[in-house]
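User: Run a structure prediction on this.
Assistant: Running it now.
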Amino acid sequence: MTQFQEKLRQQHEESMHRELEALLATANEAEAEISRKDFDGFKRLFHRFLQVKGPAVDWARINRPPEDSIQPYEKIKAKGLPDNIAASLNKLAVVKLNGGLGTSMGCKGPKSLISVRNENTFLDLTVQQIEHLNKSFNADVPLVLMNSFNTDEETKKILQKYKHHRVKIHTFNQSRYPRINKESLLPIAKSMGVNGENVEAWYPPGHGDIYASFSNSGLLEKLIAEGKEYIFVSNIDNLGATVDLFILHHLMSQPPDKRCEFIMEVTDKTRADVKGGTLIQYEDHLRLLEIAQVPKAHVDEFKSVTKFKIFNTNNLWISLPAIKRLQEKNSMDLEIIVNPKTLDGGLNVIQLETAVGAAIKSFNNAMGVNVPRSRFLPVKTSSDLLLVMSNLYSMDAGSLTMSKKREFPTTPHIKLGSSFTKVQDFLTRFESIPDMLELDHLTVSGDVTFGKNVSLKGTVIIIANHGDRIDIPAGAMLENKIVSGNLRILDH
């Protein structure tokens, strides 16, 4: 870094420090104390952001992970379970990442409160799963929700309804960081408020923030004091992320000097997952490589299914004492994800974020486990929602499993057009969810509705041209069909 660049960097840091202090002055005492901790983390991230230029990895030094660093799930399952698996469960807490809003699916409020199956929300299903575990094994596995300032208030209101369930629920808030103007590199916030003109001035800085905010909240210490040794972390919208007893037993049965401090569940890539982060060997450590870190010239190579065969499901098993150790030393060096955004008024801002899985390189004896695809069932769009609401899955104690009536274990490929994006619109377009047990591929585009008891098999493509409407009649069975044009069914 030249002298000029170094001076410029110092100026940016000093200006940022002044602006943050001015923002803190607008908060009340209690709020300022929390925000000061948040800002300390932000300043460290900003400092590193100013120093790192260009791609975070040197492509020539990337290697495939050694064979033994990613174990097949079957090998771990083959060990079986001990009689006293409850003792291992009592050392586990489940953490769900609950910072996201349902905006991409046209819903207001936390995404975890969207109904996904038989009127059950993501949060309902999570509570049911853990309660079932606690009752079945007479165990005490708590649920921990990492909320954001966007989801905290509404989530806490809902938690009242689980008071009489057999699961202790804790919450903590991830940090609140200021969005910065792309040109001036200064915060766009005018005060610490989150309403009015400030509504777009703040953001939750990605799930990599879990380590600092978990530690700052005091919950990390509390769980360690209660005898908890590991957390199982996953996205709340991944319906496949249930507590796996075989992986838990594998962690607990390691000799103390070889304790695995971090397991990342990975699964085989398909064409649909080309953007997912992958595990690489880099400078003698396992490391998570995200698409944002890949030099432009190598993006196609990164997406290839042949070179990088697996991707990160974001189901992670992490040692609590190890998090405490790394936090105290301040030695968790997470790669920065620079996320550019354009706000409604046209202002260009940047968000500095980190990913929870990126910490894998800092933990001892970290490894990947190549799990079945069934452990990765995210609901990001209404197409995913159709899948999990259908008869392809059966539900038991909050867990979804592929129906035994489906002949092959792969899920169908579903693409619903923009008329289905919002959950409310999606629900009005289906009188009942079609039978999809024998479906391979469904594409729907335009103004299309489905009557009751429709059955879809093979490859079905339904395209209503602009201005036309297609009503699939009740009881219809479509097998390997293309439906286009105009088909209106009117009551008379």
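The longest strand covers residues 310-319.
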